[in-house]
Structure formats: C-alpha cells, structure tokens
Amino acid sequence: MLNHISDHDQTIFNKMLENIIPDRCFMLLTDDSGTVLACGLGVLEGEYLGLFNIVTQEKFRNQGYGAKLIKNLLHWGKENGAKNAYLQVILSNAPALNLYAKLGFEEKYKYWYRIKN
Fold first, then answer.
1. Higher-pLDDT residue of 83, 1
2. What's the whole-model pTM score?
3. Percent of the chain whose predicted confidence (pLDDT) is above 70
4. What is the C-alpha R_g of the chain?
C-alpha cells in the first residue's frame, strides 16, 4: 500500500509475511479520521525485535509519524521480552537513515539482495 510494491511483488511479499513463525506485530498509525499515516512490522525473535517495512505515507513525512510508529513497535517488543532491536534500510534512503540515527540506530553491516535470473 504505502511501499509502492507492484501487484506481482505484493503477492510474493504477502506470502513471505504469512510464513513468519515468530511473534509479530503489524502496526498502522492513523489519524482521527482513519487515514493511514504510517505502517510497519515488528518481528520478535527471542530478545531481538526486527523492524521491517517501515513506511510513512509521502504527504505525511517529516512530521514525526515514522518516529512515533517505531517507538510504538519498540514498546510492543519490550513488553514482549525484546532487549535489542535491529532494522534494515536501503543506503540511498537518506530520510530513513536520518530518522533511525535520531532514534539511536547505527550501521553494523551492509547487505544485498540476490535474484535468480
């Protein structure tokens, strides 16, 4: 929805989400009228909370909604036993990198995706 994934890739993405075994929390941040401002996923694995697919709707960016969403996911994780959190972000996503840095996240390693040709 907010992440602009193609219909074909959304089907694959949905199948991936359905296969997540650990506890998970899908979160939507909405305004009073029900408009979705931001969304994200937290996956709890032991003492670690992974944050995935954190997206703020374009017209609501830079208004603190991404930070609020992440703080809510971190709270859910802590309430369920997480002591650490991690996330992945594309290096070219400067706004996200700035947000995550403000929240105390720092780079530990780089990663890449491979696709079968």
1. 83
2. 0.77
3. 86
4. 15
CB atoms < 10 A from the CB of 64, how many?
Answer: 14
**pLDDT the model gives residue 115:** 82
Cα distance between residue 83 and residue 59, in whole Å: 33
> Cα–Cα distance between 31 and 80 in angstroms, integer?
26
> Which residue did the predictor score with more confidence, 36 or 9?
36
Measured distance CA(96)–CA(62) in Å, rounded: 10
**Domain locations in the chain as residue ranges:** 7-102
Q: Which amino acid is at 107?
A: E
Q: Which amino acid would we find at residue 80?
A: N
Which DSSP helix (H) or strand (E) runs through 69? helix 65-79
How does DSSP assign 69-113, residue by residue? HHHHHHHHHHHTT--EEEE---TT-HHHHHHHHHTT---------
Residue type, 102: K
The tokens describing 74, both together, are 């971190």
Pick the CATH number of 7-102 from 3.40.50.150, 3.40.50.1970, 3.40.630.30, 2.30.30.30: 3.40.630.30
DSSP helix/strand/coil, 56: strand
